[in-house]
Fold each of these.
Amino acid sequence: MQQANAKKGSTRWSNRFAYILAATGAAVGLGNIWKFPYIMGENGGGAFVLVYLLCIVFIGVPVMMAEVAIGKQGRHTPGHSVSDVAKASGKPAWWGFVGWMGVISGYLILSFYVVIAGWALAYIFKAGAGQFGSGDPKAVANLFAGLTGNGWALLGWTSTVILATVLVIGKGVKAGLERAVSALMPLLFVILLILAGYAASEGDFGAAFHFMFDPDFSKLSINGVVVALGHSFFTLSLASGIMIMYGAYLPEGVSIAKSSLWIAFFDTLVALIAGLAIYPIVFANGLEPGAGPGLIFQTLPIAFGQMPGGRIVGTLFFIMLVFAAFTSALALIESSVAWLVEKRGFSRWGAAFAAGFGIWLLSLGTIASVAELPISQFAMPWGKSDFFTMLDYFTANIALPIGGLLIALFTGWVANKGLMAELIDAKAVFRLWHPVIKFLAPLAILLVFLQLTGIIQL
Ligand code: PHE
Ligand code: NA
């Protein structure tokens, strides 16, 4: 046993805290600060939050435990780790495709994630230079249109994000990834608390609190429930190879159940505090909570332009957003880099640049879509679409739900029960986890998937 392990990948996080921090860095991202606040706004607030929390606890956490367990057993890149668990369970190695799907989803997500992260990076400078002016809605909208309509500017910001990602990840798991995350995550929490404090004193905190934590079920549609479940996957970075990869680096003696709960707790905390930092400002300024994806790039800057200290707070806000997005981007590229090193004989630096170059090429598709170049629109069977919309749709609504479903089915039905029990340490926890991963999670995910693809309409 000892010897078999020694032959496998030997990279490990320094300790339990380093692992939890790194995985929290992977989880906390654009999903928490950009997406969660606006989908909560679109779906009526409190009742949506409650359902979202239930999804995190009863589906997200069990699936995360399953992924980390696979990684810990395999100690390889995701495809190979899933194969290993299959083989150890006397099942065919082709089950590895479940891990492979995740790696591919993660890679595709990264290709547009870096573009949005580029917007956030650009906004640090716009906020810092006082370009939100006095918060005139029209001027703020023009600012956003000016950025997203300028292909060369987008290319520049996106390339900067990718280069930074490559330069950190090339240094390795410990010297690059772990060190960067250990520096950025505490800063992110500090900025988040400053912003929430500012929102509480300058904004309408009472209205925001009421909006988020006073459930009004008449405002929640069945579609809102589906969105909540889907987002619980996205926000915890599930079904994207990430948690399998991070599990492969898990030091011995770390409880998979406890650490997963901590990661989910921090991710949820950041999302909720982000809401509590954004909504008091939105309400105090009479802005629209259901503004959609433009909430933080087009709505919030109106308030930043109008409020005392808004220039500094706005700058801090976008710095925080970049930190959050960057630690997720590092996670998203790690599986591909590790695979190039492990299976293709690349050096770590060579792998980082190769993976980064592939992302850069793919990101051109998203940039062309956003900047509306003549080549960017093409006809699809379901109507006119663009590369960005398709990627976003395919990954979030198809690849992640199917990937999560397969992880649940694989660990619940295919993998050896004794092996899973050994990996999910505590007996009592395993007895709770197993029926959830075997029945509850697959059924719930199936429901989401069918709803999102329009096969059923609830
Ligand atoms: N969890 C990340 C976020 O909240 C997004 C993400 C999804 C990252 C899937 C990787 C994979 O922003
Ligand atoms: Na998240």
Note: Residues 310-344 form the longest helix (35 residues).
Amino acid sequence: MNVTVFGTGYVGLVQAAVLAEAGHRVACIDIDQEKIDRLKQGQIPIFEPGLAPLVKRNHESGNLIFSTSAAEGVAHGDLIFIAVGTPPDEDGSADLRYVLTVARTIAEHMEGKKYIINKSTVPVGTADKVREEVTRTLRERNALNLEFDVISNPEFLKEGSAVADCMKPDRIIIGTSENASEQKMRQLYAPFNRNHDKVIVMDVRSAELAKYAANCMLATKISFMNEMAVIADKVGADIEAVRQGIGSDPRIGYHFIYPGIGYGGSCFPKDVQALKTTATQLGIEPKVLNAVEERNHSQKHYLLDKVVQRYGDDLAGKTFALWGLAFKPNTDDMREAPARVLMEELWRRGARVQAFDPEAMEECQRIYGARPDLQLCGTKESALTNAEALIIATEWQQFKAIDVAAVTSGLNTPVIFDGRNLYDPLQVAESGIEYHCVGRPE
Ligand code: UGA
């Protein structure tokens, strides 16, 4: 099938590459000329495992083309994805400017029936707004005879495993009331819908809400566990034992109940905030979502509170090693990363930071630039040199086995603050390292 994807961000690019791999002919359209030029040369703007070879292969085969020409994009695809950004507005609601601009562009150039698919995470009611925008533009063109449908097809991929998630989706939600649209979408996703039917068809508004409900439910699980961890700390229980104890109940499950120092990334914080705003605008007090957000905010300070308890509030003259800058492993994304709160709070108290991350060093440099209280180190070992203590903010695989020799010889005094509960506290204690973690007896 001929498909067009507007927006070459995370969602758009991954979706486009995966659809091309399945044999569809996909045109990726973006207004950023430099980005498109780089994509044509096989340069991927984000770090995402498996994406670069996929893009390269399909670009070379001709299944994946890149262009800045909206007209070309609209002419190419019967199915047109809108996968542009929806940054938060000042009031926390999603800014639909880019989504509606694409809607208008499609209507300006379309000459036959188009299936317009909302892939961006957008508030309930957006499909109707897209429909209105397209209708308005067609009216201006005197072309109301041209048919179209607006379908909601939310994305559920995770950064770091985006390609795999897209290749093997748990579910394919299709929000439409038109039979023809359902059939088109089923045909599009047929290569990914092999063993059992993963397609769930519903009305547009339910599909839009399902996306927010999924992310907010996951954020709720995390904030709940983080609160349990704080309680565990105070009552002398071990949250890791509690986690296993409750996860064994299939109604709760083992997924997404890992306590830590708060969720980050571009999705959970933004989506919780956006759904809160939607609820508030409708006169509903979002009590659960308020609590989820509040817990996440304080959790990001939790490890720092332990540092302050140990060293006092004035950290001037002290250097801390920081392992992990990305908001989670396998990405270079530092949006809303707990590591940022940690670093900024350490700086505020006068401390220096020696940081290492396997992928996010460039991103850190881009965000903070050169500053005397930040040293980006080439290896995790060199970050330890002459530091007061080690702080772990991201659970990268290479941090998971404790290197007692490196920690004891590198640090001034062997102290670890672990925001991801990577190590066994007893084992660490036996090796003579002072260990502070989240919700476990220390
Ligand atoms: C999330 C959802 O998991 C995807 O299903 C969704 O499609 C995506 O948002 C989106 O809306 O685009 P993502 O933000 O890439 O994906 O990352 P997650 O793997 O969900 O992690 C989010 C945060 O939760 C991370 O900071 C992670 O460290 C934290 N987390 C996750 C925990 O603290 N504990 C857990 O048990 C799991």
Note: The domain at 300-436 is CATH 3.40.50.720 (Rossmann fold).
Amino acid sequence: MSATQTQPNIKSRDQRFSNLQRTLVLIKPDAVQRGLVGQIVARFEARGLALAGLKLLQMDEQRAAKLYEPHVGRPFYDGLVKYMTSGPIVALCLEGVDTITVVRKMMGATKPAEAEPGTIRGDFAQRVDFNIVHGSDAPESAARELPIFFGNDELVSHDPSYTFFL
Ligand code: DAT
Ligand code: MG
């Protein structure tokens, strides 16, 4: 008798997870400088999101321009690119159920003054121009943004044991 027959709650990940998504998260230069990387990653881990990719890098202007292409022409664009290229960042690919929405909620509003306490921006940020984290805002954005930071060979799909409980 197989494990799935003796333990009826054990289903494959595809059966358990109806809307499995991957999203891009960037821990921005201000957060790296302030030593917040561990706390931020810990929040995503505690929520049960799986790490599919993780790296430390410093963006050049070309990469930042690709990421922020939808914001070209905005008054804050030049400052945003300067800030995002000013120091190392940590890029994460997170995987889980409805992960794009979950991450956006965990990040909080773009303007930290509007971000609820308990969110990453609501707990760690004061300024919109130093707002700690980036997260893809829709499946199309995640699909566009992830390849800017990760090649396919740098992303790992796995089924962490704790997902049995999610
Ligand atoms: P989000 O990062 O919440 O998706 P967004 O995509 O509208 O927000 O903007 C991208 C980043 O640009 C944002 O994280 C910080 C910066 N930004 C947005 N609005 C700004 C403003 N009014 N002044 C300065 N920076 C701003
Ligand atoms: Mg955005």
Note: Confidence is low (pLDDT under 50) at residues 1-5.
